[in-house]
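Internal ticket #5521
Category: modeling
Description: The requester needs a full-assembly model to guide mutagenesis choices. All entity lines are attached below as received. Residue total reported by intake: 260.
Assigned to: D.W.
Attached entities:
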Amino acid sequence: MNKDIGLLIVGHGSSLKYNKELVRSVASEFSEEFENVEVGFLNLQEPKIKDGIDRLLERGVSKIVVFPLFLARGVHTLKDIPRELGLNDGESKGKITVDGREVDIFYARPIENDKRLAEIALDRIKEAMS
Amino acid sequence: MNKDIGLLIVGHGSSLKYNKELVRSVASEFSEEFENVEVGFLNLQEPKIKDGIDRLLERGVSKIVVFPLFLARGVHTLKDIPRELGLNDGESKGKITVDGREVDIFYARPIENDKRLAEIALDRIKEAMS
C-alpha cells in the first residue's frame, strides 16, 4: 500500500441508485491495495470526477490511477473522461496541474473482454432460467 | 444444449465499434451452452433487440433467455429493454406473442456486484500503473 498513490473509480452515473451502489461496492474492494480510494461520476450523480480528484489531492497523493468502470471503450472512456481529467484523447498517462500541484495520472482501460465477464454472464443466464 | 431455447445478449450500442465487439465476444462464449445465440442493441447499432428476437424465432425456439450486458440496473435494464421485449416493468419472466406464436421470455439481471468484476478491475488498475 502506497500512501502517495490514490485510486479514482469513475462511474457513468444514473438517475437511479444502482450505478452508484455498484461503483461504491467495487471501490470498497480496494481498501487493502489502496489507502486512498475515491469515486467520481461522469453524469447525473455526485461526486463528479473533479470532486474525486480534489479529494485525493487533499489527502496528499501525487499519483492518481483512474479506473473507468465501464464495460467497453466508447465516447465516454475515450473522450469525455480524459477531458474531465485534463488528458488528451488517447493518452493513458499524463501529468496534470491542479492548483499549482503537478499530479501523475494513470488512466486504465475499462473492463472489456475477459473470461471472467462471460462467467458472470453465464451465472446470470442460469439464474434467470432456474 | 437445448435447441428449444435461444439466448439473446442485449448491448447498449455505441457510435463506436467497441460495445458491439464486446457484446459479440461475450455471445461467442456461449456456443457450447446454446445452439441459438443472437445479439441485439438498444441504441445506435444493428441488429436491434427485436431483430434478435425475430432471428431466434426463425430458428424455431419457444423460449428465449435475455441477458442485458450492462453493469448495473438502471433505466435501460428496468424500463427500456423490458418495453422492447414486451414485458411489464419489473417482470423477469413472461410470455410474449410474436406473429401469433407464444414465446416464454426469461429476463436475466445485469452483471451487478461480483467478486470477479473487482478482480478484473484490479488487473486493469495494475496494468495502468506498470
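Resolution: model delivered.
Comment from assignee: The helical segments of chain A are 18-28, 49-58, 75-85, 115-129.
Ticket closed.
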